[in-house]
């Protein structure tokens, strides 16, 4: 199987930071892409990552949520639900494009461009160890955690 390495990128992050992939070389990473802040599925998924955050940290794994929402929207979403991890604002779709998560989706009978809910686990060399695309929220975060425990 060909190894896919994620290219370095920088994105605005909650907490008034700029996230740079190259700066996080000492941890495994979970990058989860979700369509929109404060929507039922995205809230449920993010809360599940929040609730397992300490267990991920014990495995030396950092979590980052990514959507096309603005930093202001992310800050409100993070504060409202007490997420202990940062959210990255990919308003220009830089990382979404690199990871191939922008898809045409049906919403109320109309075709719309949006993020396909997807999760990636990266090792310290930024190789993608596992990816989930077209994610259904129930049980997903536990499945990601169970995978990270094996690496």
* Share in β-strands: 25-35%
In DSSP terms (H or I, runs of 4 or more residues), the helix count works out at: 5
End-to-end CA span: 17 Å
Instruction: Tell me the helix content.
Output: 25-40%
Largest sheet: 5 strands, mixed
Class from secondary-structure proportions = alpha/beta
The average pLDDT score comes to 95
Q: How would you explain this protein's 3D organization?
A:
The chain is α/β, with parallel strands linked by helices. The protein contains five helices and nine strands; from the N terminus they run βββααβαβαββββα. The protein has helices at residues 40-51, 53-58, 71-81, 94-99, 140-149; strands at 10-13, 17-20, 28-33, 61-67, 86-89, 102-107, 110-115, 118-122, 128-133. The strands form three sheets. The chain has a five-stranded mixed sheet with strand order 5-4-3-8-9. The longest helix is centred in the first third of the chain and has 12 residues, at 40-51. The protein is globular. The model has no long low-confidence stretch (mean pLDDT 95).
